[in-house]
Design brief:
It is built from 8 helices and no strands. By secondary structure, it is mostly helical. The chain has one domain.
Length: 282
């Protein structure tokens, strides 16, 4: 439930910020609510289509290399989570500037109003599609029940929508960089845990059998099946009896993510967009 809450909250917050910036930048434009609402609805529909295909693929793989399929999904999720964090760290401000420029162009009449629907729809579709992949990865790596994931997703959706709305209305003064910094590192640890679980699936399929000796056994201190153990397993990928290869994959993923964020995570300063509508840009 915790992993689903974190992932859904983060993705909803990102999509909500795009929608909020567009709404703020097009304030006073007739029918902008209808276009933005239509774009959001189209994005949600597209994400539902992606979810339907993901379920069909999972059913097709059942009984035919399920371990390999699960490992592939987990590794894909690790790569996407890592690159997603790096990209957002580098391009987050640039994206916000682009959204403000789009809104200013719509207000000035140099861009059609349906452009805001396209932008909002693509944002919702992108984040919704990532939610589908990441939640499936959480399910196969952590063994969470559909009910707990549904509850966590619902809470994450509500929190993400509420925070996005409050930020849009200016009712809270929480710098978004702090929100994203916390969730970024929580997602980094989730990705490390998924990498370790992928290694376990590959070992079960007799594909990756090197260094399969148990690195440690802490089941006497904290069992993975206990409630605290399950929470730590979800949050940081804790295992009471990991193999040496799982530990190596965890540390490697953590190190590579840190290195990529250090090398590519800083965005170059860009000039502020023109602001004919008198909108705040900070």
């Amino acid at each position: 439930m915790i992993a689903a809450l974190i992932i859904v909250f983060r993705e909803i917050l990102e999509a909500g910020l795009v929608v909020g910036i567009v709404l703020a930048a097009t304030r006073g434009t007739p029918y902008r609510g209808w276009w933005v609402g239509g774009g959001i609805a189209a994005g949600v529909l597209g994400a539902c289509v992606v979810a339907g295909f993901a379920d069909a693929i999972a059913e097709a793989a059942a009984g035919a290399g399920q371990e390999l399929f699960n490992a592939g999904i987990l590794l894909l999720a690790v790569c996407m989570l890592t690159w997603h964090n790096v990209w957002m760290a580098r391009h987050g401000r640039e994206m916000a500037r682009d959204m403000k420029m789009l809104g200013a162009d719509v207000v000035a009449g140099s861009r059609p109003l349906y452009a805001v629907a396209v932008v909002c729809g693509l944002a919702v579709l992108r984040e919704g599609s990532e939610v589908v992949l990441f939640l499936y990865s959480v399910m196969i790596s952590g063994g969470e029940s559909p009910l707990s994931m549904a509850v966590g997703s619902a809470i994450g959706l509500a929190l993400g929508a509420a925070v996005s709305f409050l930020l849009y209305r200016g009712l809270v003064a929480i710098p978004t960089r702090y929100l994203f910094a916390v969730t970024t590192w929580m997602i980094v640890l989730l990705a490390c845990g998924m990498a370790a679980q992928a290694v376990r699936f590959l070992a079960q399929a007799d594909i990756l059998t090197a260094f399969n000796q148990t690195a440690w056994n802490t089941s006497w201190l904290l069992s993975e099946g206990s409630v605290p153990g399950k929470v730590l397993h979800t949050l940081v990928g804790y295992s009471d009896r990991p193999s040496a290869m799982q530990v190596f994959s965890y540390v490697l993923t953590l190190g590579c993510t840190f290195l990529l964020m250090r090398l590519f995570g800083r965005s170059p300063e860009a000039p502020l967009p023109r602001n004919p509508a008198g909108l705040k840009t900070t």
